Amino acid sequence: MKSIVAPSILAADFNNLQRDIEMVNESEADLIHFDVMDGTFVPNISFGIPVLEAVNKIAKKPIDVHLMIVNPEQHLEAFKNAGADYISVHYETCPHLHRTVYQIKELGCKAGVVLNPHTPVSLLEGVITDVDFVLLMSVNPGFGGQKFIPHTYQKVKDLKKMIRESGSKALIEIDGGVDASNAKALVEAGADMLVAGSYVFKHPQPKEAISSIKHLS
Ligand SMILES: O=C(CO)[C@@H](O)[C@H](O)COP(=O)(O)O
Ligand SMILES: [Co+2]
Q1: What is the dihedral of CA 34, 55, 52, 179, to 10 degrees?
Q2: Mean pLDDT throughout 159-185?
Q3: Is 175 annotated as catalytic?
C-alpha cells in the first residue's frame, strides 16, 4: 500500500529553505505542499507569490498550492504563473465553487476543493465529478503542528463512498497532523495523498520520515 506524499514547507526552516527544498527533491516525496494564508480566512499569514516563484526555481516536484485566502478566484492565474501545478480552494471561501474549479482547470492545473473539519462531505455532491482531488483538513487551518482530529477517518470513508458511487476519479488528500501513527489508517480508510509538515521537517531524518508515510504495508 502506497500514498502520494506532499511535505508542507510551512514547517521548513526558512533560513535554509533551499536546503529543505533540495532534501524534498532528493526524497521519495511526490509533491511540495505550499500553504498560502491571508490573515482573514485563517488567523495566520504565511507566504505568497514571490516565495512560490523562488521555490519553483529549485523544486523538482510538482507544487501543490493550498489557498487559505478569501476571494481565491482573483489570484489563480498569478499562482499558476508563479509555479503552481495543483491548486486547491476552500469550499468555505467559494460561493461560485463550480466556476472556480473550472478556472483552475482551464489554467492547466489540477483542481482541488478543501473542506474544513466541520464542513460535511455531502456538500461536495454537486462538484465531485468535476474536481481532481478533495483535500480534507484534519486540523483547523491556519497553523502547522496541530493535533490530528480523529473524526477525519469517518469523513474519508464517506467521501470515498461518494466518489465511488458518482464515478468520480477524484483523489482524497489529508492535511494536518499527519504522521507515522495515522498514515496507514488514513490510506486504509481511502486517502490517496498525505500532506505532512512538522512530521517531516522536525524529524532528524526527514527523507526517512517521507518514505515511512509513503510505503504503508
Ligand atoms: O494547511 C495546513 C495548515 O493550515 C497544513 O498544510 C500544515 O502546514 C500541515 O502541517 P502539520 O500539521 O503537518 O505540521
Ligand atoms: Co495545507
Answers
A1: 10
A2: 98
A3: yes
Task: Indicate yes or no: pTM above 0.95.
Answer: yes
Instruction: State the pLDDT at residue 183.
Output: 98
Cell of 197: 509538515
Q: Are 66 and 135 in contact (CB under 8 A)?
A: yes
Residue stretches of the annotated binding site for a divalent metal cation: 33, 35, 66, 175
Cell readout for 167 is 464515478
Q: What is the band of 217 on the pLDDT scale with cuts at 50, 70, 90?
A: confident
Which CATH number is associated with domain 4-214?
3.20.20.70
Percent over 70 (pLDDT), the chain: 100
Per-residue pLDDT tens digits for 97-128:
999 999 999 999 999 999 999 999 999 999 99
Burial 104-140 (b: 16+ CB within 10 A, else e): beeeebbbbbbbbeebebeebeebbebbbbbbbbbbe
Residue 1 CA to ligand 1 center (angstroms) comes to 23
Domain residue limits, the chain: 4-214
Q: What does DSSP assign to residue 78?
A: H
Q: Return residues with CB closer than 5 A to ligand 2 (ion).
A: 35, 66, 175
Q: What is the ipTM, given to two decimal places?
A: 0.99
Ligand 2 center from residue 179 Cα (angstroms)? 14
The whole-angstrom separation of Cα 123 and Cα 127 is 9
